[in-house]
Design a protein that fits this description.
Layout: E1 2-6, H1 11-22, E2 26-31, E3 40-41, H2 47-57, E4 61-64, H3 71-76, H4 78-98, E5 102-108, H5 130-145, E6 150-154, E7 157-158, H6 173-177, E8 183-186, E9 194-195, H7 196-212, E10 218-221, H8 230-241, E11 248-251, H9 269-274, H10 282-290
Parallel strand pairs: 1-2, 1-4, 2-3, 4-5, 5-6, 6-10, 7-9, 8-11
Helix pairs in contact: 1-7, 2-4, 4-5, 8-10
The protein binds NADP nicotinamide-adenine-dinucleotide phosphate.
């Protein structure tokens, strides 16, 4: 198996490279501003750079994880984000198809409005913010460019981070640690966090399945198996790490900033029917990735 991973310097991409290497696959990781540790610098908005890599490597799969994924940043940088999340995704898929590679585009639960969960892969998306719009348009661009492409929608992610604010989950540690400072944390939006190692495992299983059964294509999705608000995450994090959470109170109002779905739970049955599953319990996963930050 040979794969090219875009966004290989990012939170998910690093885990995908690690999981695929552990399987003994040939892995070519692409990055942009953090192109180091064996990653190749490719600006995915530059089609000729993408073509050069894919023509040279001719991978079985391109795991396309590179994106701008901060909703509040996207609200202010919409056109620039569309170049990356939509136009580059289409161009990567057209180039991949021309060299015989299949794309797996990483998408998000934010394509849904959160009013009627759980969402199946066939439910009609209705994003509430500009980030969700770019990711949905990216999905459609990829699927139109190559009907044999795949989309994997994932929930809020956490895992080993280079900075605590790299994940919307791990950034909560600073609030938990500041026991002398009372903090009010959102207890409104419901989320299903998953560890990046579980998503990477699912991606590897999906590549293997598709290689065995090339007729598999389309939209797949995975939600973590436990429901949390950000307040719940703080409590669970504190308990897992043996810290106090008595200074943290629950805020029952919707989060500020770009509008976000209330309950973005996605139905996992399409992957489960393929026998593709993986989950890390929040308590174990958060303890493992935050220990070094204590
Ligand atoms: N994180 C989450 O909670 C979450 C939730 C749902 C869905 N997702 C989706 O999961 C995927 C991975 O997210 P992530 O959290 O791993 O993202 P991330 O940590 O923010 O990483 C983004 C990646 O995109 C790369 N990139 C940005 N601009 C580029 C360009 N012009 N050319 C090439 N590469 C470029 C970055 O490279 P450099 O850093 O080297 O510049 C980085 O590797 C995304 O599609 C995201 O929408 C994430």
């Amino acid at each position: 198996m040979k794969i090219v991973v875009t966004g290989a310097s990012g939170l998910l991409g690093r885990a995908v490279v690690k999981a695929a290497n552990a399987k003994g696959w040939t892995v070519v990781g692409l990055a942009f501003s953090r192109a180091r540790h064996g990653l190749e610098k490719v600006d995915i908005t530059n089609a000729s750079q993408v073509r050069a890599v894919l023509e040279r490597e001719q991978p079985d799969f391109v795991i396309h994880a590179a994106a701008e994924r901060m909703p509040d940043r996207v609200e202010n940088e919409y056109e620039k984000t569309r170049d990356l999340n939509v136009d580059a995704s289409e161009s990567i898929t057209l180039i991949a198809k021309s060299v015989g590679s299949r794309v797996i585009y990483i998408s998000t639960d934010y394509v849904f409005d959160g009013a009627n969960p759980p969402y199946t892969a066939d439910d009609t998306p209705q994003p509430l913010n500009k980030y969700g719009i770019t990711k949905l348009d990216g999905e459609n661009a990829v699927r139109n460019a190559d009907p044999e492409s795949l989309v994997l929608r994932v929930p809020i992610l956490y895992g080993p981070v280079e900075r605590l604010d790299e994940s919307a989950v791990t950034c909560l540690l600073r609030l938990v640690q500041a026991t002398a400072t009372p903090a009010s944390v959102s207890h409104y939006e419901k989320r299903y966090p998953e560890h990046v190692s579980a998503i990477s495992d699912i991606l590897c299983q999906l590549c293997e399945k598709v290689k065995q059964e090339p007729s598999i294509s389309g939209i797949f999705q995975w939600s973590g198996l436990e429901q949390f608000t950000k307040y719940d995450m703080c409590v669970s994090m504190a308990e897992a790490l043996g810290l106090s959470h008595s200074h943290i109170t629950a805020d029952s109002q919707p989060s500020s900033g770009a509008p976000r779905p209330y309950d973005s739970r996605m139905d996992n049955s399409k992957l489960e029917q393929l026998g593709v599953t993986s989950h890390v319990t929040f308590k174990d996963g958060i303890k493992q990735c935050l220990q070094k930050w204590l």
